[in-house]
């Protein structure tokens, strides 16, 4: 028996009856020979981890635009913290940890430079619209490997597209990631806001603190423990009513005090203008796009979508460098 088959058999013995078994995957869009060592979801996790899109996350904004300091989160560190939350919950509930980790690592691949500011800009200027979860799916299905995609399993792709709060993944592992994402960003964005002097822990309303604790560390612990205790041996992932209400109230508090704070967000207007200008530049100079995107346009991709594909893939630094190269005059050097 191959190692992969042994691991798949082990899943049937130790995982919950509500877990998604690797051997029961709905498969990939393109058939391929299974790995003799890794079950399919572990293989998907590896493909995401080794992708160029994943590496670019290290230079993409989480909340604070180009902060002065080495300890503020980036989109990559956010992704890793989501992955850790999801693995902790999935392991405790005896769900498929490989599937949860693969979804977590891939969920934000489609984020633009400068976070949600870039996303808003592209959504405003592109007639086809732009949403980062849809772009994450587009990356793994079509854009990685120079237009060939990663050919991931259906379950991982479903979890990636459905990680937003208003959506619902088909698997429990996908639903774990959906909540893990929100818990992670509330926790680390609060930590960054405390470090940046935007908040102090005592700013959090006392009615919330009485439910989830008085420190940032206590909050994440409360949410994860509550999810595990209320989802154990259940066919859904959920919180207790009291903690779920506190969860939504804390999100509301974070949006009011951090995500719209002028100190954290004071430069976003400039960012949105820059992204819109870059978008229009490439619409007008379509020949400047990479060859694989031009090839995809020859095969039917709208030019506006291809431009979004390119601009959204940029890191913060690269977007600024390209903008400066195109629009900022250089000194005239005479030898």
Question: What this model shows, in words?
Answer:
- There is one protein chain.
- The protein contains 17 helices and no strands.
- Helix 5 (97-106) crosses helix 9, helix 6 crosses helix 14 (268-284) and helix 9 runs antiparallel to helix 11.
- It has helices spanning 3-14, 40-49, 52-56, 75-92, 97-106, 115-125, 132-147, 154-161, 172-195, 206-212, 216-231, 241-259, 262-265, 268-284, 291-298, 303-313, 316-327.
- The chain is an all-alpha fold.
Q: Enumerate how many helices there are, as a single number.
A: 17
Mean pLDDT: 93
Radius of gyration (CA) equals 21 Å
- Structural category is mainly alpha
Instruction: Please outline the major beta sheet.
Output: none
Distance between the termini: 71 Å
Give the helices and strands as they follow along the chain: HHHHHHHHHHHHHHHHH
Poorly predicted sequence stretches spanning 5 or more consecutive residues: none
Shape: flat
Please give the number of β-strands.
0
Which percent band covers the strand fraction?
under 5%
Q: Into which percent range does the helicity of residues fall?
A: 55-70%
